[in-house]
Amino acid sequence: MSFGQGGPQWGPGGTGGPGGGPTPDWAALAEASEARTRRRKWLLIGGGALATVGIAAAVAITVVSANSDENTSSNKPASELPTAADIPGASKDSEPSFDATTPPPPPDPKDFISSAKKDKAPLTPEGLFPGTSLRSGEHVYKKGATDSTTKCTSVTQSALGSILAKNDCTRLIRASYLRDGVAVTVGVAVFDTTADATKVKDQVKKGLVDSLAGKGVPSFCRTGVCRGTYNSYGRYAYFTTTGYTNGKNVTTGDRKAYGVGDDLARFAFQRINQRGEAQASAAAQAPQ
């Protein structure tokens, strides 16, 4: 249909009408009108459906977006999952932690031989000088007689005895050793404190521990010249008296006699130190 000046003009096929022009086909017009109405209705319905779908999609997107904010790791590979430290409220420590503890240091062996209050192990000649012989490097010494006394001045020359008495010597233990015609008596004097033993070492200038014969060791140093040494460690002072069993004098620089005396002085120190180590080890292993 076209519109122009003078009103509508219909095409052929009509039955005639007023004004001598063609008559419209009203039935066809009605069907065409109904068809147009139906199309508009479906368009409206379709548009509503599309709008509904659009709303649903918006809701779905919103829900997914909300879930994404709260559970960012739900759809990610394990390599992208957050660590424990990134999770709110999670501990940053993956394992339980404990306060560091430092074990106490082992006991000092010298502590046990520095005072009579701690030095409680039995003290005997055999305990201090065990066995029947002593090896020092390539040298072997035969052990002779031993003894122990609480009267320290009774087995020492007066110059040494007076110093022992002044500093309260409580015991003196002796042992003798022999090698190649040279004999030595080791004397260990016992005091209550380290200070007392140190005073003896610092004050003594001369005087010897009496030599001790017996059990294979002949008499020596009863006459002639013998060599003496003095030292202390902890609450103990220790001495040596070295001489020849044939009565020969010991002279300055006599390497043989000096070597024997030094070996036995070193042995006395080691035995005193081992006494401290044994008591320290026992204390470390004792239940707390």
Number of strands: 6
Strand adjacency order, main sheet: 1-2-3-4-6-5
Order of helices and strands: HHHEEHEEHEEH
Number of helices: 6
CA radius of gyration: 58 Å
Shape: elongated
Strand content range: 15-25%
Proportion in helices: 25-40%
- Structural class category: alpha+beta
Low-confidence stretches: 1-23, 47-74, 87-91
**Termini separation:** 117 Å
Q: Kindly state the mean pLDDT as a whole number?
A: 79
Biggest sheet statistics: 6 strands, antiparallel
What does this structure look like?
This protein is of the alpha+beta class. The chain has 6 helices and 6 strands, in the order αααββαββαββα. Strands 1-2-3-4-6-5 form a 6-stranded antiparallel β-sheet, sandwiched between helices. The longest helix has 45 residues, at 26-70. It is elongated, with a radius of gyration of 58 Å. Residues 1-23, 47-74 and 87-91 have low confidence and may be disordered.
